[in-house]
What does this fold into?
Amino acid sequence: MAGDMVVVRREGLYCVPGNFYIDPWRPVERAVITHGHGDHARVGHGHYLAAAPGIGILRSRLGDITVQGLAYGETIEHNGVRISLHPAGHVLGSAQVRMECGGEVWVASGDYKVEADATCAPFEPVQCHTFITESTFGLPIYRWEPQQQTFDDINAWWRRNAEQGRASLMLSYAFGKAQRILSGLDPTIGPIVCHGAVEPLNRVYREAGVALPPTRMVSEVDKADLKTALIIAPPSAGGSPWVRRFGDFSDAFASGWMLLRGARRRRGVDRGFVLSDHADWPGLMSAIKATGAERVVVTHGSIPTMVRWLCQNGYDAKGFDTEYGDDEAEDAAAAGAAADGAVSGIDAPPEPDPVAQRWAVPGKADAARAAGNAAAQTAGNAAARPAGNGRSGEDGDA
It folds into this structure.
């Protein structure tokens, strides 16, 4: 076909022959949604198409919308474009969008990770000519531990606090990260309590068939039992009056940004656990290679670094400027740690307004691009070693 199948318009990523948008950031008539995080799924569209496992999440977050669910791998045709959705491994219902027209195939990844977890369908490589990839952690320093090691560390921290009669407060993004943490907890240690922003999403996960341990609201737990409880709450709850009821507690923050030096210190928590629902640098590279694509379009994150690296390694690569943030960016805003430690001199973004966030871009994008440009000067051909061992220790370093 002549010209690109997908371009950027003021409304969002636009499939030209199909006349539809992918995760548009302004209201459109037809939107294909990759997943339910607020920077990708927004109110105001006329018709939504999304993966069937994520319909419950979309309805719970967006309310009464006109939405069509598509099973993974099922194909529909719209204006001559064959559309199918394939697992992205990011959160429940996350999907890559495969578009085929005139013998050419494009795939838009949305957000993804390549390590499988128990709360969503694992990432599925999809062969294509052009792959549109995210780059949230598109710097060579980002390399995750196996998630089981992180779960073991979280349980050990909780167990130690429970033995000392201290509640354990885990701050994490309410959709996706919270449920992934829940799936790795040892419920024999004590009661698991969830904030009011987390528990409704737990119910959606359970209704979708995802096994999670029993959870309770704080009002359902005796005060004495809170001393051995693990409480999961969004970052905004940290330091709020809501947490004062727990008395003497130890707090922690779970995010990929906890890998950055100083992130935990600036967040002011006792522990930082490196756990991300986005691909790390090796994951991004392996996902791109697995598609067999010759052209790669890089979006939201460290665009300059990834484009430069891909071009140096034989790909036809470019970037798309989008208005996507991400759940990790929201974590970073709350933590005040968007780029501290990876690149000095980059200010953390302000705490995003929860309403304006549906329609505005978090400030993290510019900081990430600046970090990418600076890191590219020292990373060479992306052979940089990971910062530390990827685990936040007791001494304050991530």
